[in-house]
Each structure stands twice: as C-alpha cells, then as structure tokens.
Amino acid sequence: DGLVIDNLFVFEDGPLSTHVNVGPNTAPATFQFRNNLWYAADAPGSSQPSLPSPETGGVYGEDPLLLAGFRIDSSSPAAGSSTGLT
Questions:
Q1: Per-residue pLDDT tens digits for 36-84
Q2: What Å distances lie between residue 12 and 17, 19, 38, CA to CA?
Q3: DSSP 8-state secondary structure symbol assigned to residue 14
Q4: Is the dihedral of CA 13, 61, 4, 25 positive or negative?
Q5: Alpha carbon distance 85, 56 (integer Å)
Q6: CB-based contacts of 8: which residues, under 8 Å, 6+ apart?
Q7: Which of 18, 68, 71, 81 has the fewest CB atoms in 10 Å of its CB?
Q8: How far apart, in Å, do the first and last CA atoms of the chain sit?
Q9: From the CA atom positions of the chain, what is the Rg in Å?
Q10: DSSP letter string over 47-83?
Q11: Residue 20 phi, psi dihedral angles, 5° rounding
C-alpha cells in the first residue's frame, strides 16, 4: 500500500539500474503512483520509469526547469500539478 504521489524525480538514466526498488516481501501491485514528474537529465526520451504498478497522471521527459536550491517557479511543468494529497 505504498503511495508515491506529487513528486519531482530528476535523475541520470545512464548509471541507473532500476527506477523503484520495492524489495522482497512486498506487494508491488498495491503501490500507487500518481502525478509524478520524471526527468532523465542525460536522456529526456528515457524518462518514463519502469514501475511495479501503473502510474496515473505522470509526466515524463519534460524539463522541470529547476532553479537554484532545487526550486521551481510558475513556468515549470511541475508547477500547479499537485493533487493536494501530500
């Protein structure tokens, strides 16, 4: 029953071996992924992760336009996309 909602993931696809490791003795199908933005900075076309269950409302490959301090402003595709559940 894991929840992964309203997150911004910026990563490098090259060295990444897995996007989400749920570990042994879990029920991956019970995880919920919603409204996350995933961006592979080194390969934007490879931004869609392999997840243990489907994601609803995910955004893939759109540069979040991070500012200093890892902040975003209103021009970011991540701005205003929160579900309000977090």
A1: 999 999 999 999 999 999 999 999 999 999 999 999 989 998 887 666 6
A2: 10, 11, 11
A3: T
A4: negative
A5: 14
A6: 36, 37, 39, 64, 72, 78
A7: 68
A8: 15
A9: 13
A10: -S---SS-EES-EES------GGG---TTSTTTT---
A11: -140, 120
Give Cα separations from 48 to 44, 60, 67 (angstroms).
9, 5, 23
Q: Do 30 and 7 form a contact (C-beta atoms < 8 A)?
A: no
The structure tokens 């490879």 sit at 46
The CA-atom distances, in angstroms, between 85 and each of 13, 17, 34, 78 are: 28, 29, 10, 15
Q: Tell whether pTM > 0.90.
A: no
Which tokens in the block code for residue 9?
């993931």
Bridge partners of 60? 38
Tokens of 21: 């490791």
Helix/strand/coil for 36: coil
